[in-house]
Design brief:
With 203 residues, the protein is of the alpha+beta class. It is built from four helices and twelve strands. The chain has one domain: Copper Amine Oxidase, Chain A, domain 1 (2-Layer Sandwich). InterPro entries: Cu_amine_oxidase-like_N, Mao_N_sf.
Length: 203
């Protein structure tokens, strides 16, 4: 009797931890064929990752209303600030450490979206773009961010986290909220009205 009880307990333990792990895996076979096994370290991006489920405690029906444009709160209960500094997509100077670069910025869903690849270059971070699955991995030091076009989920250091807006595929690049990529790598975002510049400051 005791052996049966122990075996049942062990089985429940294995099932619980087996199903609760939040790891990623390769998105499709073409992805692995093109980039080689282990490029995304055997992680999988399921369609379930695109939206937040009620059972996880997130109410995420309107992702564009869950954060300020310049601050990634990671908290879906924060009221939105819809006052963007501009409403039309345009080239905007993004300043970091007194250096600035012109980036194309797209106002969308209450957020300012920027090219993840170009922001990675500005932040001197490494990145890998997987064109079959439109997944972008950005890393610098111990910090890593993984996003997929069309998804409002990000993996920040392999922890699934809600983004205030879906990532967006545009001109062969994955665009995501400037606050998400900046905050991940330790920068605060602000807007300088006088110079019409997005300013990144180290946190």
């Amino acid at each position: 009797m005791r052996k049966k009880w122990m075996a049942s307990l062990l089985m429940m333990f294995v099932l619980f931890f087996g199903f609760s792990s939040g790891q990623l895996a390769s998105a499709d076979d073409e992805y692995e064929h093109e980039y080689g096994e282990g490029k995304v370290e055997d992680h999988e991006w399921d369609d379930e990752d695109d939206d937040w489920e009620e059972e996880e405690g997130y109410e995420y029906e309107v992702p564009s209303q869950s954060s300020y444009w310049h601050m990634w709160t990671r908290d879906t209960s924060v009221a939105a600030d819809s006052s963007l500094p501009f409403q039309e997509a345009q080239e905007v100077a993004v300043q970091l450490n007194k250096e600035s670069e012109q980036l194309y910025v797209i106002p969308r869903n209450g957020q300012l979206l920027v090219s993840g690849e170009k922001m990675a270059n500005l932040l001197q971070a490494d990145y890998t773009y997987h064109k079959q699955s439109r997944i972008l991995e950005v890393s610098k030091g111990r910090d890593e961010l993984i996003v997929r076009s069309g998804s409002n989920a990000a993996y920040e250091n392999l922890v699934k986290t809600p983004m205030p807006s879906e990532a967006y595929f545009f001109e062969k690049s994955v665009y995501l909220p400037v606050s998400v990529i900046a905050n991940t790598f330790g920068y605060r975002v602000s807007w300088n009205e006088g110079s019409q510049t997005i300013v990144l400051q180290s946190i």
